[in-house]
Amino acid sequence: MQATRSHSRRKVAPAAADGGDSGDKLEQLLLSSAICNGEDLGPFVRKVFASGRPETLLHLLRHFARSKESEIEEVCKSHYQDFIMAVDDLRSLLSDVDSLKSALSDSNSRLQSVGGPLLSSLDSFVVAQNVSKNVNSALQSVTLCIKLMELCTRANLHLSNGSFYMALKCLDLIKNEFLDKTPSSTLKRMLERKIPEIRSHIERKISKEFGDWLVDIRVVSRNLGQLAIGQASAARQREEDLRIKQRQAEEQSRLSLRGCVYALEEDDDEGGLGGDENGSYSNGNDGLFGFDLTPLYRAYHIHQTLGLEDRFKQYYFENRKLQLTSDFQVSSMTPFLESHQTFFAQIAGFFIIEDRILRTGGGLVSRMEVENLWETAVSKMCSVLEDQFSRMQTANHLLLIKDYVSLLGVTLRRYGYPVDALLNVLSKHRDKYHELLLSDCRKQIVEALADDKFEQMLMKKEYEYSMNVLSFQLQTSDIVPAFPYVAPFSSTVPDCCRIVRSFIEDSVSFMSYGGQLDFYDVVKKYLDRLLGEVLDEALLKLISSSVQGVSQAMQVAANMAVLERACDFFFRHAAQLSGIPLRIAERGRKQFPLNKARDAAEEMLSGMLKRKVDGFMTLIENVNWMTDEASQGGNEYVNEVLIYLETLVSTAQQILPPQVLKRVLQDVLSHISEKIVGALLGDSVKRFNVNAIMGFDVDIRLLESFADNLSPALSVGDANQLKNALAESRQMINLLLSNQPENFLNPVIREKSYYALDYRKVVTISEKFRDSSDRLFGTFGSRGARQNPKKKSLDALIRRLKDVS
């Protein structure tokens, strides 16, 4: 309807301006349009006031108002008709409303009469329903309280039984499922207060149990470490026993013995302390080895349940770290030799337990944490070893600690711990150990030599023979002698052999299990030093200061011969203990390491014999150099010498080996030969005849016969060598008795028959040689006779040799 009015207004406005001029019509049109469109009339007002014609604007406004009044009137007329029609309609509806009101009143009366009983029944139902709800709510509350009390009772029972995990599970169930639903505020407040208290109580109890476990585990760690290292030692001993049996089998094979029975021994594979490799969470109970990780894992599990897992991990690690630091303390009141086993066993047990916890602890400790602890432990153990080794001055002490440390390394290597740093410390003190060992052996050898009585050793029982001869392979025959048995050596030989064998075994023991597999060269180097520097020098000192008389010198020479066989055993024994084939050891053998002492002993013996022989050789002064008849039974001096030598040989054959006897007799016979030549060469002999030379020829033949008679004890070759010791005197006598002495000038004949002669001695001795015709007054009867061809040849020889000189 407004749209209609608006439309009518737009049409009326231009028609109202018919009576004025065109300007007024335009103004009227613009003003009507602005009013109809609801625009601002300010510009029209300002314009008329600016032009000084406000009356025009008022006139236009009045004209516009009059035009609208007619329009309003028309509208009101149309609306009035409509209002009349509406009033008529309302009047027609009034009767319908009255009839409806009556009908509603009747319906209400009937409804009230019918709904009254229903409403009373409904009220009773609502009351009964509310009672039912209250009863059900009460039943639910009682049921909830009963369950809650049952959980509380169960939690108390678990607490009293020490089942803290189950108690905590009950508390968690109460807190998560029942606490917010608890109908009793009193009970709820009680639970809210008691649950934290109970959790704190459980934490204190389990912490106390864990603290007790921390105290107990230190003792357990020490016992566990000792047990583990003891098992490693037993395993090593079984390996050593197996090696001994293997060496015995090899020795029997080397000696080509038959009838040997070999059996493969199978050792039970002991599981050791490593346990299973299952990394899952387990209680860690190992009753066999006396340690139980159940308290630890229980505490860890309880703290996990309490939500304190990280705090417990840190607490455990810090306490174990403090325990390990405490284990590093070395008491200054107790010698390290006495406490080292406890020290290392404690550390070994600590890391065996940590390995078990790492594998079965469910993440209680990490591998990096254990590795860091191990690095700290290795660094500390290396520092302690360096310090203690630097103070030690006894080889045996150092060996004992080294053996235990190597067993520690073997034990912990089974659990994956690197032990190279420990083995490097042991290797670094190898030289010091051997120097101390050499020093100890030097003292023992000096004491053993000082106690020697230079008497042949008497063995009354077979075990003595086995202990002193067979154990060092000193026997010359596989046949066991009859007892009592008198050995060719004195007691100092087996004593020294025991010292050297102990040195070898200690050296191999130190070098074994130290990370170096091929150590025979090291053992051999120090064995050479022991024999060449220690034993050889001690024997030289003994020979130069303590040997008195031929019997003692002979005993020392016999001892040296036996020690030469013993040295072969020493190197074989070192090779066997070092685990290398004997052929390799034999290939690397050098000369006899005691050659200085051997040569000195033989030189002393031969020197004493020479001095003894020199006493008999003084009888050579009694020889008649111009005798008329040649001696048929030998001169007096040679008979005395032969008696002495035969007596000497009968004794020497019992103790001296043939080669030693040969070398000594060769030196003595060579000395006798020099004495005979020296007598012919000496100034005391002015001249001699052929009979005297023939007498010396008999003497030398007796000496050569003496050498030939030694053939049962010596080989034919050795007997010939003894005869060759008389070469100078024999060749000199042969030259003087030769019919053609001038053949000495022939190089071929001289090289073959006179190689031992010095031409200067030949000249001097030949000038003293006189034939029987050259004796005093002998020339008168032979004047004018032809000169002896032998004499002529000898003179020619003398002239030629003088010309050469």
From TrEMBL:
<feature type="domain" description="Exocyst complex component EXOC6/Sec15 N-terminal">
    <location>
        <begin position="61"/>
        <end position="229"/>
    </location>
</feature>
<dbReference type="InterPro" id="IPR048359">
    <property type="entry name" value="EXOC6_Sec15_N"/>
</dbReference>
<dbReference type="GO" id="GO:0000145">
    <property type="term" value="C:exocyst"/>
</dbReference>
<dbReference type="Pfam" id="PF04091">
    <property type="entry name" value="Sec15_C"/>
</dbReference>
<keyword id="KW-0963">Cytoplasm</keyword>
<keyword id="KW-0268">Exocytosis</keyword>
<protein>
    <recommendedName>
        <fullName>Exocyst complex component</fullName>
    </recommendedName>
</protein>
<comment type="similarity">
    <text>Belongs to the SEC15 family.</text>
</comment>
<dbReference type="InterPro" id="IPR046361">
    <property type="entry name" value="EXOC6/Sec15_C"/>
</dbReference>
<dbReference type="InterPro" id="IPR042044">
    <property type="entry name" value="EXOC6PINT-1/Sec15/Tip20_C_dom2"/>
</dbReference>
<dbReference type="GO" id="GO:0060321">
    <property type="term" value="P:acceptance of pollen"/>
</dbReference>
<feature type="region of interest" description="Disordered">
    <location>
        <begin position="1"/>
        <end position="21"/>
    </location>
</feature>
<dbReference type="GO" id="GO:0016020">
    <property type="term" value="C:membrane"/>
</dbReference>
<dbReference type="GO" id="GO:0090522">
    <property type="term" value="P:vesicle tethering involved in exocytosis"/>
</dbReference>
<dbReference type="InterPro" id="IPR007225">
    <property type="entry name" value="EXOC6/Sec15"/>
</dbReference>
<keyword id="KW-0813">Transport</keyword>
<dbReference type="Pfam" id="PF20651">
    <property type="entry name" value="EXOC6_Sec15_N"/>
</dbReference>
<dbReference type="GO" id="GO:0006886">
    <property type="term" value="P:intracellular protein transport"/>
</dbReference>
<dbReference type="GO" id="GO:0009860">
    <property type="term" value="P:pollen tube growth"/>
</dbReference>
<dbReference type="GO" id="GO:0005829">
    <property type="term" value="C:cytosol"/>
</dbReference>
<feature type="domain" description="Exocyst complex subunit EXOC6/Sec15 C-terminal">
    <location>
        <begin position="422"/>
        <end position="768"/>
    </location>
</feature>
<dbReference type="GO" id="GO:0006893">
    <property type="term" value="P:Golgi to plasma membrane transport"/>
</dbReference>
<dbReference type="GO" id="GO:0009846">
    <property type="term" value="P:pollen germination"/>
</dbReference>
<dbReference type="InterPro" id="IPR042045">
    <property type="entry name" value="EXOC6/Sec15_C_dom1"/>
</dbReference>
<feature type="compositionally biased region" description="Basic residues">
    <location>
        <begin position="1"/>
        <end position="12"/>
    </location>
</feature>
<comment type="function">
    <text>Component of the exocyst complex involved in the docking of exocytic vesicles with fusion sites on the plasma membrane during regulated or polarized secretion. Involved in polarized cell growth and organ morphogenesis. During cytokinesis, involved in cell plate initiation, cell plate maturation and formation of new primary cell wall.</text>
</comment>
